[in-house]
Amino acid sequence: MNSTINTDLKLIPGDFIPDQDVKWCPGCGDYSILKQVQTVFPELGIPKENFVFISGIGCSSRFTYYMDTYGMHSIHGRAAAIASGVKMANPELSVWIISGDGDALSIGGNHFIHFMRKNFDIKMLVFNNQIYSLTKGQYSPTSERGKITKTTPQGSIEEPFNPLELALGAKSTFVARTLDRDPKHMQSILKRAHQHRGGAFIEIYQNCPIFNDGAFFAFSEKGTKKEEAIYVNHGKPLVFGSNDDKGIKLEGLKPVIVNIKEAGLSIEDLWIHDEKDKTKANIIARFFDSAETYFPRPFGVVYTEERPIYEEGLMLQIDNAKIKREKLHINKILSGEKIWQIV
Amino acid sequence: MKNVEVKQDVVILFAGDSGDGIQLTGAQFTATNALFGNDVSTFPNFPAEIRAPQGTLPGVSGFQLRFGSVEIFTPGDISDVLVVMNAAALKANLKQLKIGGTVIANTDGFDPKNLGLAKYPAGVNPLKDGSLDKYHVIEIDVTKLTRNALSGSGLGTKETDRSKNMFVLGFICWMYNRGLDHSVDFIKEQFKKRPELIDANLKVLNAGFSYGDTTETPMSRYEVKAAPMAKGEYRNMTGNQATALGLIAASQKSGLTLFYGSYPITPASDILHELSKHKNFGVKTFQAEDEIAAVTSAIGASFGGNLGVTASSGPGIALKTEAIGLALMLELPLVICNVQRGGPSTGLPTKTEQADLLQAIYGRNGEAPVPVIAASTPSDCFDAVYEACRIAIEHMTPVFFLSDGYIANGAEPWAFPKAAELPVINVQFAKNDLKEGEKFLPYKRNDKLARKWAIPGTKGLEHRIGGIEKENETGNISYDPENHEFMVKLRAERVEKIADFIPHQKIDNGKEKGKLLVIGWGSTYGAIKTAVKESIAEGCEVSHVHLKYLNPLPKNLGNIIKQFEKVVIPEMNNGQLIKIIRDKFLVDAKGLNKIKGMPFTTGEVKSKILEMLK
Lengths: 343, 614
Description:
- The complex is a heterodimer of chains A (343) and B (614).
- By secondary structure, chain A is an alpha/beta fold.
- Chain A has a domain at 2-215: Thiamin diphosphate (ThDP)-binding fold, Pyr/PP domains (Rossmann fold, 3-Layer(aba) Sandwich), CATH 3.40.50.970.
- In chain A, 29% of the residues lie in helices and 18% in strands.
- With 614 residues, chain B is α/β, with parallel strands linked by helices.
- Chain B folds into three domains: 4-224, Pyruvate-ferredoxin oxidoreductase, PFOR, domain III (Pyruvate-ferredoxin Oxidoreductase, domain 3); 234-502, Rossmann fold; 514-613, Rossmann fold (3-Layer(aba) Sandwich), CATH 3.40.50.920.
- In chain B, the strands form five sheets. In chain B, strands 11-10-12-13-15-14-20 form a seven-stranded mixed β-sheet, sandwiched between helices. Chain B has a six-stranded mixed β-sheet with strand order 3-4-2-5-6-7, with helices on both faces. Chain B has a four-stranded parallel β-sheet with strand order 19-18-21-22.
- The relative contact order of chain B is 0.09.
- At the A-B interface, strand 1, strand 2, helix 2, helix 4 and helix 10 of A face helix 1, strand 9, helix 9, helix 11 and helix 12 of B.
């Protein structure tokens, strides 16, 4: 699909706004995501008619109706499988999946892992609000242990998924995290995902103001974000803190938080992010379960690699078969090799 | 040359361990007879386990073949010849042999160990104790003779013993006066990468053939002349193979790329195996991670402009249910093949049943009508699945195609068509012919009440579809009560409308009026046809209609039924079509139900006919 880049399309964000009213709750993080997608899409060089959105079920999945492209709002958990069918039918299309933490990681968990492994050139956006919102407030597979919801009045007794770690384990070739309240960052991640040749997984922290308000405020609000969030960039040191005074250093495979000045270190002594290093990507992705050891939450492209793309492999086999058996007429397979005549 | 006796038709049942190559021996002898010009019908019957413990009763695999110089519609109720590789095979199948029939026994399979595994009491050997006196027994030490033929070949005992089935094939070919040409070609092709095995198998095959001539035991040979079949070119065909070819043919005729999403399941996997060999026709086969991904990827492919097809058997179809409802709401073409097997749950994976009819017609949440088409014989799978594709594409709807384990694995001669003779399939892709300011209406309909297929990549027709209730024409989400009722009725009407575009029901056999009408569907065709034919010949007033279209039913079916005093409906289930016929036509139909994982015998259907006419 990158082959169809065309800079003369002159699309504007307005071209992607359909005539339907957007019906998310006021203050929902989904509005920001929709805005960033509509802002970025005109710049991608893809004709509007070649974009396809496939979504499952949940608040996030209504997204499809709010983009004036081809789209299917399907059934719960199955967006990845449907999208892969669309892509195999027509590899020229730019196919995007919109899903949520329940849709992608609970009911759609099996499709999620196999979708990552197979590596279709499809971009998957998972809006993670750590709650079931459309069904009005039950815990999700990303809700934290102890979470009190309608179905867990005494608190959740489940360990949550860390979606980045799951995606890496399932062999995703592009793993990134961003959040609704950082529009610029989200735009840059969307562009990176689009440019990636292969399947892309973007976890988007998204605030649900009704059922889980403020779940990610620590990473987005002024007072805390410099201490709680760390933005990773390829080739750049891992620096964070209110005054960019803290860094992360690797001692062997063990990450350690250091105070740069106090430790008498220079920037070069810190861990330099290499998004192609899977071992280190795994370590970064695990800045998550910080009950014992505190680490800031990472945002950015954690890992990326190039690997054969599923639909390209499929089309190559078809092309090879066509070359090899070019002259084989359908009548030949209807008759088969062994025939007899009754006269 | 010894005496040659002419037979009209012969039923042979080959039986042995799952690892004895019984299915292969049966299939090769079938092909040999078919190529000779006999009419043939087969019934492979094997355990669900790949290799159950050797020599035991659960490990017995069978292949029943009937070939004849007359028209044949079933693999036969009872065998003339039973070939057994061991004691368990005899024990499991002796009741299938007619009194006076022939047993061909591999004596090596009747040693104390095998007799014990077959649970014969200590010291009892059915070959020795006179219990087979009612049969003609031919004892051959196949194992020893195979080893003799291969002594000095350098092959180990294990590999040597593996070609025992070729000895049997050679001997049977001798017995029925068939040349070895076809078998020789097959062996050469099968082992082309291992020339030493070609030599070995040919040696054993020939040893089996010459054994008949050289043995001192007096033995008869038989002759089954070619059958008077309709003029034309024929090939041997199984149901699953015919299904695969029907899908490819529909793809070629419609100009649509075939996308086949499937998850391995018995007895449907062979369709996936076959299709994956035909990528040169652009066929895209996708082995999905599960049944749900299989159907939903096919729905995605249909949205993208391919002909989306998925297949499974009962348990897998149950998993696809929600997605089939989605396809119905989306109004996209989708063909769902169900190669039925014994249920419920895992049920009887390798045995046949027709118990998923109600699942196909009704088994979804909400008011969700889906057209249903069933194949009646192995080769009819081609026509039936082709028709399912035509309806799916021209009416923009999911369509069920029903087959079952019996016809999926069974084989018969097929007067194959040429592509040019197949019905046209019209695809209506939406084009952007909108006037300035005009909005595209994705759910605007034609005379078939079908919408146009607007595929991604078509400029100006961008639109969203989904599983939520929608407004007609615009496709916009609508929760309006009046609209929902209107849409439910419209979707029902869409399926009913298909009756205007299918042929009227024909009477297969018998008069248009009479005492008894037998209504069948699916794979019971052969048994019912034979039973009705024989009953008519004996003076009974009975007729047979066999339904291909189960939903909607042909428009004239009600009128046909009215012409008969009684109606009987044989089904390999506990009574499913009968519920529909009673519901639609308020007729007091009676059922004939067999739920044993086995097809009807002609005798069973015939005695019900006689009982009904009493």
